[in-house]
Amino acid sequence: MKSNTILGLSGVAGSGKDMxxxxxxxxxxxxxxxxxxxxxxxxxxxxxxxxxxxxxxNCSREQKDKVRPKLVERGSVKRKETNGRHWINQLxxxxxxxxxxxxxxxxxxYDDYELDExxxxxxxxxxxxxxxxxxxxxxxxxxxxxxxxxxxxxxDPKLKSKADYSLQWPTFESNLKECAGAHVDSFLSWLNGYNxxxxxxxxxxxxx
Length: 208
Fold this sequence. Notes:
CATH class of the domain at 6-39 and 102-207: Alpha Beta
Shape: globular
Largest sheet: 7 strands, mixed
């Protein structure tokens, strides 16, 4: 894997971004994991523990969903003050200091401002935007997980349209690691063939 590879994962909450990264790190352990929301969670941890008795760094999906509005509210305030750059500026020194290894940023969520997270990842860092969608089969049709709030409903379609690689996977009822792993294998096969021509032409694909 190229040491300067930088991936950014997008997709609505519950789509499987963290699962994708977890499996990616198992299959390609030279990757380092980063999150734009890490500093936000550090700032909010004590207040969330006090108000909800929930440790945001060690909680269930249901608990995370309960405190998500508080996180979104605080994150949005800082974003509005800086045209979307506050959390980028918090994380960027760590990214720039770790480019001896490939990098996976698990939460590219916004494309509201001109120099927002999508621009930062793709244009400033020269990174690859991966969009992840999860669906259930209902009456023989795919029913995709929906955005839980207005910010994600507004931003997710824009991020999906800009993605260099779009992955759609089902809700796995069994053999999760094995089944999900096959999708990550397909991505890694694509990534290994990703070269300067792909970067220049911005060829986008969807795995089905």
